[in-house]
# Entry
Amino acid sequence: MKQVYRSRLAQVLGWLWVVFAAVMAVDLVMRYNGPPSLVAGAVLAVLTAMIVVTSLRPATVLLEEGVLVRNPFRDTFLPWAAVGEVRVSHAIQIDYDGGTVRCWTPQSSARERVSALRRTTSQDGRTRASQGLTTMPKTTSGEQAAVDAMAGRTHADFVADQITERAEKARSKAAFEGKGEAAETPAARTTWSILAAAGCLIAAALVVVAIIAS
# Structure
């Protein structure tokens, strides 16, 4: 099953900019006045290219074969057998044999973590109020562990858990089907995004041409 995780805010802002850039491009064409319009159009192209590669392109994609980390200019594919420890600071970090890959999205800010902690606390308070509880009820160790585990959880934490869970399931399945025989761990693959790099280079070249022409 394919699962794609992105930053919703980045997606919304990115597409809003694309719409704005399209409107501005049409206006520049209709009101063309020579070199100034060329420079403005070239700068608009550079900004649009950078926003596309940093806001719309990045994603963390969970596939049947492994996890694909799509960052602004590079793609890293990790087979499930190659996935090691998955950590979350402000970004998801996936260890593998040979290095560590950082996921551009989703990210976890300190403000988001604090907000998630407050949300968990307020939900717990509303639950107690709805049950008419005026004193602190006794909870079992299992219930308290579940509350502590969910406190302060962000979208990045959820995605990291999904990666870890699917990697463990894939390794267990491979071990079961292989009847315990040792198998060579598939290697990770990192490639450059030709389209992303080419788009930014073309936009930068347009700026140079526009400045020369002016």
Notes: The chain has three domains: 1-57+193-214, 79-108+154-190, 110-150. The two ends are 53 Å apart (CA to CA). The longest helix spans residues 8-30. Strands lie at 3-5, 59-62, 66-70, 74-79, 83-88, 91-96, 99-107, 189-192.
